[in-house]
Amino acid sequence: MTTEPIREDLAAIPRYVPGKALPQALKLSSNEVPYGPLPGVAEAIADAAANAHRYPDMGVTRLRDELAARLGVGAERIATGTGSVALIGHLLQAVASPGSEVVYSWRSFEAYPIAATVAGMKSVQVPNTADHRHDVEAMIAAVGPDTRALIVCSPNNPTGPSVTAAELDRIFAAVPESVLVVIDEAYREFVNDPSLPDGVERYGDRPNAVVFRTFSKAWGLAGLRIGYMVARADVADAVRRCVIPFAVNGPGQAAALAALEAEDEMRRRAALVTSERKRVVMAARDLVPEVPQTQANFFWLPLGERAVEFAAHCEERGILVRPFAGDGVRVTIGLPEENDALLEALRDWR
Ligand code: PMP
């Protein structure tokens, strides 16, 4: 059967696997927060709905201005998109050329290989260390003349650890300025180790730094699809050229602004997640001592060949987690009672 005129390389792209969603099940599979939208968000969406027949502000002006003020950068350095996953794709489209490469650790966020292939770039995947961290020296060594970008996922999805300031300093010192150092901080708000760097604060002025953030995780807006990035003005401009017009819709823009207004409550909720994280990881380590350190709202069970089996065991008990076959299981931190159910499932399994 002919597949013409479809690009042959698309068949090789692994499909993005969303965390399962079954009604009634405890959903610990997609790294969402369990609390519902922040105060004021639902009202802002309802108000914006009255303008559903109009196109939204394509420049996302108010939201970009507000983010710029909070981050201490010019709004021209911010690009927004339909989730940070879309923006990562647009960034790669903006730098791709025949034969160009993007370096990232593996295992890491499953969207990177997809975005790279769609953009027409070659993925150079650098295996994580035995303790599930980025192997920074090996990543640096993987940078070659065709490398356009190196992606650091910090905290790393799905394994949990963050990249340290010393490691990032080293990357910026070792990598030529012509290579974009992309720091994906989707889980930044859950980082509570004060020694870990804030990508915008520490590296924002480097010409080749690009920092990705999202409203999907701690800000509780996964369903509305809003992500943003901070970069040099011409890099942000190039990405904005690639973004689909009106990518961030009106209710999404309104909701993100309302969420920012509720920052204190976001921080309170993030602190609940991180205190649960500490409790749950300690308990999980009694059963699986190899659980790596995590700074995100999830943790990694390195179960190897038994990963799928454990996920099935959880599903039988009405708990959804995210298996990566042959490697491990990623478990999102939920409400205390949800976490207890997960720990019970783990105890029963071993
Ligand atoms: N980066 C990382 C590391 C992620 O885990 C995710 C979400 N799974 C994203 C980016 C994308 O998030 P969104 O598209 O919802 O902004």
Automatic annotation (TrEMBL):
EC number assigned by the record: 2.6.1.57
One Pfam family this sequence matches: Aminotran_1_2
Residue numbers carrying N6-(pyridoxal phosphate)lysine: K217
Residues of the signal peptide: none
Gene Ontology MF term list: aromatic-amino-acid transaminase activity; histidinol-phosphate transaminase activity; pyridoxal phosphate binding
Keywords (A to Z) from UniProt: Aminotransferase, Pyridoxal phosphate, Transferase
BP-aspect Gene Ontology terms: L-histidine biosynthetic process
Gene3D superfamilies from the UniProt entry: Aspartate Aminotransferase, domain 1, Type I PLP-dependent aspartate aminotransferase-like (Major domain)
Catalytic activity field: an aromatic L-alpha-amino acid + 2-oxoglutarate = an aromatic oxo-acid + L-glutamate
Top-level taxon of the source organism: Bacteria
Domain Aminotransferase class I/classII large, residue spans: 25-346
Co-factor(s): pyridoxal 5'-phosphate
InterPro entries: Aminotrans_II_pyridoxalP_BS (IPR001917), Aminotransferase_I/II_large (IPR004839), ArAT (IPR024892), HisP_aminotrans (IPR005861), HistidinolP_aminotransfase (IPR050106), PyrdxlP-dep_Trfase (IPR015424), PyrdxlP-dep_Trfase_major (IPR015421), PyrdxlP-dep_Trfase_small (IPR015422)
NCBIfam families: hisC (TIGR01141), PRK03321.1 (NF002878)
Stated family: Belongs to the class-II pyridoxal-phosphate-dependent aminotransferase family.
Subunit structure of this chain's protein: Homodimer.
Function: Aminotransferase that catalyzes the conversion of aromatic amino acids and 2-oxoglutarate into corresponding aromatic oxo acids and L-glutamate.
Name of this chain's protein: Aromatic amino acid aminotransferase
